Amino acid sequence: MSAVTGFEDDVLSATLEHLHDLYRENRVRQGRLLRIGIKPRWNAVIGARNECGLAINSAGVGSIYGKQGEPDLKTLRSFIGKPLFDIAEWGILSEEPLKRSIGIACMSALSQKFLGCNGIRKRGFISQCWKADGDFVQDYPALSHIINLDETVAVVGYGSQITPLNTWCRKLHVIDVRPPETFESVIIDEECIDLPTAIEYHPPHDTTNILGAADVVLLSTSTLVDNSFELYVDAAKNARLIGIFGLGSSLIPDAFFERGVDIFSSFRIIDPVSFAMAMETDYDMEYSMKNSQKQYLMMRPSADFGDSPVAAFSRHTGIPGGHDEAPVG
Asked: The pTM is what?
């Protein structure tokens, strides 16, 4: 069971405090905001010191068009040149999805210097990373290693990493605001079949029983943008493992582990040039992130790994295709 500690502070505010501490302790200078990219699915930021960050755009790109979007555009433009920490704090204190997303993206940009495997391990956590195009993660999605075939998995938020989990667990529940027909496939052959047939979809309301009965619960970072994270973590208190997944979870994990989260699965942005190019040309940035950046798993040692394949990480035995990274200098 994931033991949820008595954590009183908001997890994003606590993460920002951890970042302040890391920057002070390592004598790292923060950058100033250089560019913002508002995309259909993601919001991206670039800092003047090659910082790059990403967060899900729950509001949609349409929210900034027309007269209704003019105030937000004016506000965001006024932030160009200001310190990333200031914009992060402004964003995460807001209740508006667009502002929260920009704040989280700035936190993501500030986190990148401290997501290297050695740095994560020095802070007492378990970490392993791979080149995003490596055979290991191409053949076996990283999230598949945290579950067993006889377990029930509940996922909040749908992403490209989720569908493959259908073959690695007994039952997969997906909780998403979108109807399943917006992301399911229909294969027409001798029969017409909705795939994947073994996934059960649910709207966000009244999901407490589903999360409470799941062995593994995976939360998209959309739960940070819409401010539902705490609600879902509390509902999942009986789970063996609680995980955060997706491109938008490129954040330091410290405060999340203190809150009871066990697993982080995301990407570290190691190629700012390709990130900046994708911000302009890539519709959803998933292709560029998976092919130009590094994928990682981070875990807290006290997590209940059970007999799942991820238990190998806790023994530091190494996984084929794994890569250590240099500590922060």
From this structure: 0.86
Closest CA to 293 of 280, 276, 281, 305: 276
Identify the three-state secondary structure at position 98: helix
What's the CA gap between 326 and 329, in Å, rounded?
Answer: 8
pLDDT tens per residue across all 329 residues of the chain:
444 343 335 999 999 999 999 999 999 999 999 999 988 888 999 999 999 999 988 776 667 666 667 888 888 899 999 999 999 999 999 988 899 999 999 999 999 999 998 999 999 999 888 776 666 666 667 788 888 889 999 999 866 667 778 788 899 998 887 666 666 666 666 665 555 556 788 888 778 899 999 999 999 988 999 889 999 999 998 999 999 998 888 999 999 999 999 999 888 998 899 998 988 888 777 777 777 788 888 999 888 888 777 776 565 544 444 445 543 33
Which residues, at least 6 apart from 32, have a Cβ–Cβ distance to it below 8 Å?
Answer: 47, 48, 81, 82, 83, 84
- Domains of the chain in sequence order: 11-113 (3.30.390.100), 115-314 (3.40.50.11590)
